[in-house]
Design goal:
The protein is of the alpha+beta class and 658 residues long. Helix content is 38%, strand content 16%. The strands form three sheets. Strands 2, 13, 14, 15, 16, 17, 18, 19 and 20 form a nine-stranded antiparallel β-sheet that branches. A hairpin with a 2-residue loop joins strand 3 and strand 4. The mean pLDDT is 96. Bound molecules: beta-L-arabinofuranose and zinc ion. Beta-L-arabinofuranose binds next to loops. The site of zinc ion (ZN) has 6 residues, from helix 14 and helix 16.
Length: 658
């Protein structure tokens, strides 16, 4: 199944266009300022000799600059702002100067430990950073046509091929990313050695002999190297009295589960934290750090598309099923625990402890997209939509200049959106994903076309003759979607439309073509209840094969009653509670909208709930209004929008007895 380059799809959507504009006009420039202020860009200036100073930030700081470049390139493709082009060119120039002649680029080692390479692959993210460099090169090339950054990426990839092809299992990165990046580069260049190295990196996972000892040694070595960096910094500060270390205020505290320290050691030493506990085909449950897990699954699914492999696909499907039925929050958030930034046990989904990092939701989007392309099953596109609107969208504030990192489903205070984080992996990750949104809406295989997302847009296809599709969508607020079909001449082809899982059996969707009602399949029945009450497996594609003519118009009606979703009985603390959802949106109670109401103990009267347009709220939303059993008015807002008005309290799960 063929993917589209995002820039060939033009998004014109009442909901998304505004957000993408904020991303393009504000978020990307704000992020650049923050990368500058925190010293991330200067690290490259130090290497290129443009500036004197001391390297700042985490060992993986380079990746934030690379993700920013990718986001900027994707934005530039549809909104070519010369200011953005200038910043991209400046950064690419720095990378050209900083990269060694043989392709190495990792400021942490180059500045602190010149001459040392690949010494701490499990912890220090060296290959992860090279992966983001490669992804940026690929994105910049497809967005601008320029080969400048692509050449840097190719040089880096060639070095990796030289140093890592046919080497041992310890030559795997503790944080997956390089695998999917090499696969993307292979797709653009056709170079088979990138495919082969990505395959080997994946196959090597979970095979390090004596892993606990290996990891322990790597931790010890990393501690020693960190101590050396501190000494170097002290010495630099002593020689440069004007120097002050770049420091960011602490991020939002994440609540800790009991026995976190012990569980952390077990998680790490067993290999689960970094998905090194078993070979990839035996990894049938989501474990450990949830961003790493998502990138691993994305790469495995990409590889499976390039080299079909039923056993790998089977492992991916089992892991997905386990995640969706037992280890995912109702928002689509992933990661129940802060100590490992990742997955807990089955049904361990405490709303307040939820880590649910924005990047974990994004990793899941990438994975689900690959699964949708591989299997053509609607459940993957459905989860994509759900996470796009909820678990991922919550990461960026309405101004584009404030962010959430961890995303609990209940907050009693102490959590607010921040302009930046000491670990700023999420903002540019979200920006690059939004800027590429066009590529996730449609796919094509010959004369079959899939509409995965109902996002207002226009796209051009080649089905042996030119075909244009236009989607006009009222989602997520309104229930109508119109699709106009414009083949150059009448043509027979199949249009696959997704019937979302959130179309309740009680109020089914309807479809008409040129005013004629069409039969739709009966809603699917759930097999085993999903932990969170949201079940993407209820989605299905409707194949519509016919002779289509220019001007044919499809009208879809997706009723959006307010649903009260119940958690699986095995989820502790969820009895008598429900999550309120409408269409693809999860709602929450924020105390600012509910003065005088204790949002954690109030009993909501389900019969009182109605959806009401609230133009004054958060830029204009459809709010859910109702009342408590004691007659107090309540207002629920989309979860993705909470925290936009300063620090507050919030809960997704509300008390609803009946
Ligand atoms: O370690 C690199 C990135 O920073 C991870 O993906 C995030 O979870 C954060 O730790
Ligand atoms: Zn992140």
């Amino acid at each position: 199944m063929q993917e589209f380059v995002a820039s060939t799809v033009r998004i014109e959507d009442p909901f998304w266009s505004g957000r993408l504009d904020t991303n393009a006009r504000r978020a990307i420039f704000h992020q650049w300022q923050q990368l500058e202020a925190s010293g991330c860009i200067d690290n490259f200036r130090l290497l290129s000799g443009e500036k004197d100073g001391f390297r700042e930030g985490w060992f993986f700081a380079d990746s934030d600059a690379f993700k920013w470049l990718e986001a900027a390139a994707c934005i530039y493709a549809s909104q070519p702002d010369p200011r953005l082009a200038g910043l991209m060119d400046e950064l690419i120039g720095l990378l050209e100067a900083a990269q060694t002649a043989d392709g190495y680029l990792f400021t942490y080692n180059q500045l602190h430990f010149p001459g040392q390479r690949w010494v701490n692959l499990q912890i220090e993210h060296e290959l992860y950073c090279h992966g983001h460099l490669i992804e940026a090169g690929v994105a910049h090339h497809s967005a601008t046509g320029s080969r400048r950054l692509l050449e840097i990426a190719i040089k880096a990839a060639d070095l990796l091929v030289h140093d890592f092809l046919t080497s041992g299992p310890e030559n795997t990165c503790g944080h997956e990313e390089i695998e999917l990046a090499l696969l993307r580069l292979h797709q653009v260049t056709g170079n088979e050695s990138y495919l082969e190295l990505a395959r080997q990196f994946l196959e090597r996972r979970g095979r390090i002999p004596g892993y606990p000892l290996h990891l322990y040694r790597q931790f010890k070595q990393h501690e020693g190297r960190s101590a050396q960096v501190r000494q170097l910094r002290q010495a630099y500060a002593a020689e440069h009295p004007a120097y002050s270390q770049s420091r960011l205020p602490p991020g939002n505290a994440a609540k800790k589960a009991r026995f976190s320290t012990l569980r952390w050691y077990l998680n790490a030493l067993s290999g689960k934290y970094m998905q090194q506990h078993a070979p990839v085909r035996r990894q049938t449950a989501p474990v450990g750090h949830s961003v790493r897990f998502g990138y691993l699954e994305t790469a495995a699914a990409m590889l499976q598309r390039l080299i079909p492999d039923p056993s790998l696909l089977c492992a991916l499907e089992r892991a997905w099923e386990r995640m969706v039925t037992r280890r995912m929050y109702v928002t689509g958030g992933l990661g129940s625990l802060s100590f490992n930034e990742g997955f807990g046990r089955d049904y361990e989904l405490d709303p307040e402890l939820a880590y649910a990092e924005t990047c974990a939701a994004l990793a899941s989007l990438f994975w689900n997209w690959q699964m949708a392309l591989t299997t053509r099953q609607a459940k993957y596109s459905d989860l994509f939509e759900w996470q796009l609107y909820n678990a991922a969208a919550v990461g960026m504030g309405l101004t584009g200049e404030s962010y959430l990192y961890n995303n609990p489903l209940a907050a009693r205070g102490g959590i607010s959106r921040k302009a930046w984080y000491a670990v700023p992996c999420c903002p540019s990750n979200l920006s690059r994903t939004w800027a590429s949104l066009g590529k996730y809406i449609y796919s094509q295989d010959g004369n079959e076309i899939w509409v995965h997302q109902y996002i207002g847009s226009q796209a051009a296809f080649d089905i042996g003759q030119p075909l244009r599709l236009q989607v006009l969508s009222g989602l997520p607020w309104q229930e109508e979607v119109t699709i106009r079909v414009e083949p150059e001449a009448p043509a027979e082809f199949t249009l696959h439309l997704r019937l979302p899982s959130w179309c309740a059996a009680s109020s089914p969707a309807s479809l008409s073509i040129n005013g004629q009602a069409q039969p739709l399949p009966a809603p699917l029945a759930p097999k085993q209840p999903a932990a969170s009450g949201y079940d993407p497996r209820l989605a299905q594609f409707i194949p519509l094969r016919r002779l289509w003519s220019a001007g044919d118009t499809l009208q879809l009606h997706f009723p959006m009653p307010i649903l009260t979703r119940r958690a699986h009985p095995r989820l502790k603390g969820h009895a008598g509670k429900a999550a309120l959802t409408r269409g693809p949106l999860v709602y929450c109670l924020e105390n600012l909208d509910n003065p005088g109401v204790d949002i954690f103990s109030a009993q909501v009267e389900p019969a009182s709930l109605r959806a009401e347009f609230a133009p004054e709220l958060l830029g204009g939303i459809l709010a859910l209004r109702g009342q408590t059993d004691s007659g107090q008015a309540i207002t629920a807002i989309p979860y993705a929008l909470w925290g936009n008005r300063g620090e507050s309290q919030m809960t997704v799960w509300v008390n609803i007895e009946r």
